[in-house]
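I am still getting used to backbone structure tokens and would like to learn alongside you. Label the sequence line and the structure token line clearly, so we can match residues to local backbone shapes. Would you write everything just below, so we can both look at the same thing?
***
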Amino acid sequence: MIGDINLSPAVPPLPRYEDKKRIDVRYMLIAPYASAHIYWDNKINELVYELEEPILSEDEEKSLKEIEAAMLELINVNVAVEKTLEATTNYIDKTARLLIDELNIKISSEGYEKIFYFLFRDFIGLNKIDPLLRDYFIEDIECNGVDTPLFVVHRTYRNIRTNIKYNTFEGLASFVEKLAQRTGRYVSYAQPLLDGTLPDGSRVNATYTKDVSSRGPTFTIRKFTKIPWTPTQLISMNALSPEMLAYFWVLLEHKSNILVTGGTASGKTTLLNALAFFIPPESRVVSIEDTREINLPRENWLPSVARTSIGVGKVGEIDLFEILKSSFRQNPDYLIVGEVRGKEAFVLFQGMASGHSSISTMHSDSVDTLIRRLQTPPISLSPTLVNTLDCVVVATHATVGRQEIRKVREIVEIVNVNKDGTALVNTPFRWDPSKDMFYSKKQSRAFEKISTKTGIPTEKLYRDLVTRAKLLYGLYKQKIFGFDEVGWIINEYHKNPVRVLSKYNIHE
């Protein structure tokens, strides 16, 4: 039945292999029509992501083109897109059947089902990449121009070439125009760069002409994860240790300031989302981002997103700096800033200095580089302001046993930043890549700061860390990974720790 199209088939557990040549997996993307087949291709000696879709005969392909051309004149795509899936499916179905009668096209019921899939994909979805956007495992979709295969970044198997390509300049330019329409932006020869957000929250960056990129139009889509990773999922991925998470839990309970740093796609926002689970449930949180990526398991939360200008000039632009300045009037207990790059860092650090606990991310591969960046133009912070930062988390991409993974490389506490730009630091946690193990030392300057500020003995803070690490590890062992469930348990722990520890059989 046409109405049985399923855009969210079950997500399978995918096996990890040390030897990529052994990979051969297949799973549904749009049931029952489109699936992904990932396997090692011996001809090109490379891992391949093959999108499998219904195969049309010559007659069916000709009928599809005829119906699509007639449909373009008939339907209002915006109306169709805004309806529910069921209404949309019926709308496409009725219109297509009407046109088949009018155009006197002869087609079997099996042929019609295949044609319907392509109509649905092209009119309601995003053409040939639509199944990729619906793949739970894909993080990025990358097109480098005409006549070159699209590449994807896969959660389990990382960078893979696909069997999809755009063969003509016109076809690819037309698709970039469609991306612009879906993001509510505009591209042209005069304005060939596109930066926007799709309705599902995915981030789009594209170029429109050969002047900008020699292979013609290009695009990159960073997919939006509707349900972020939970702390227990990060433990299951061995991205960091339960003790590290418990350390963040103690820090955030006592309103410390944390900056997550690392290279592109090192997992900074993923970690930021996981840390936000530890903010006390009664606290007011304000988040500020360029593109909506933060999702918090709480009600007292005000999410804000910067707005870029439309057209030439800066008409209607509201940048991070403006939102950040106004956010302090909203009386936040905790401030989360998606990423700081420029002048907004000054406002963020001023907020830290005035007692607003802040968590943010920044591009940098080490603490030394980060501190230099903060103290040089365009940010130009004074050492006094940099000292308000309690700890820096360094996230990294690494290869362990032929597997590409994300890790928290180290957690570094800022003890003191001198006027000459040098810094005295303490590293309570670090990851050893040679053994793939996390190490910790029992001395935290951040705990000492908390103790001085609150009067709580550091021994009590260390006991809290150990108990919470046991709880998080226990939840991981009991396979409790759900976003709502993990959020509820952590919030409940704030209210009644004894009951939660007893419920999950954790002994202090």
